[in-house]
Specification:
With 392 residues, the chain is mostly helical. It has one domain. The protein is built from 15 helices and two strands. A two-stranded antiparallel sheet has the order 1-2. The protein is globular.
Length: 392
Amino acid sequence: MLLSLAQWLQTLAPEFGFFRVFQYLTFRAVMAAMTALLMGLVAGPFVIRRLTELKIGQPIRGYGMASHISKSGTPTMGGVLILLCIAVSTLLWADWTNRFVWIVLVVTLGFGAIGWSDDWRKVVNKDPEGMPSREKYLWQSLLGLLAALYLVFSISESSNLRVLELFFKWVQSGFDLSLPPKAGLQLPFIKEVSYPLGVLGFVVLTYLVIVGSSNAVNLTDGLDGLAIMPVVMVGSALGVFAYVTGSAVYSKYLFFPHIPGSGELLIFCAAMAGAGLAFLWFNTHPAQVFMGDVGALALGGALGTIAVIVRQEIVLAIMGGIFVVEALSVMLQVTYFKYTKKKYGTGQRILKMAPLHHHFEKSGWKETQVVVRFWIITMLLCLVGLSTLKLR
């Protein structure tokens, strides 16, 4: 909005030329981060107070960690604060005509709505299971597939009109499976090499990345501040990749595919970082508010969508290694328990408790030790991911 306003003011008179600063992506990214951060810090106490008044408190399950019993009743669904800050800051500082900004916003708010419904059933309707898993995955899958079908054509085109044109041509051609080279899977550390996917492969990969990332972040969100800081770090690193792929000069120099318009996602990533840091102010141990599924599912979906657009799905798995390991720990624990129960009659566990962060708690680590050490690991993994910009 502010970009359009600045451009309009420049057309009125030469003395408004200083508004040209709004055309610089880096300036708007800094302002987006600052706007989201300040907005979150100001609005945070009101949101927490309101959630407390509505008695939207986090239920603690009986089989969970005993040390977490004191957290029962802490306001949850604080992810609404993050989403509000991201949406407002992005709409203020990003280019409204950019197709990638809108698709990421739609996916983020869509997954947020799914999480909201799940949280609401748990804490307001007092349903301990919340939204049934099948129903949740159905809505996640629908949203992920719709995003994939849009992105399969939009990455190589510069306008929504052109995207619709290609989509209809694809339908008329009998669903031709050929795709532009930009939609190939980019291999990190290897110069100018990508694996061709085809339409079906791209859609499947995009679906898995978006839905998988959403659920992985949600599984990680189990300790005070554990999920939000890695989201901030990974999101900020993806913003760098968005800036590179959106620039014809930098993408050519660094041997990355040039994706016109993707640079505008730096604004969204900056807003996500600012909103995340503001939320961490209230979520740090001992937490005054929890993110809830409304925040975790949305932020994970956002990371996955951005990674697909900038063609860095593998790098996302590297930088978000904590999310990947947390998700795998749950999958392995459940699978092994069911297998041993079927074979021996008694279920056995690989870990003391899943997800992985609870295993370390059971092993004697304090909550703050687990959180900070996972942050350090994420920082290291983000540096490895960023090194792929040059080490190719």
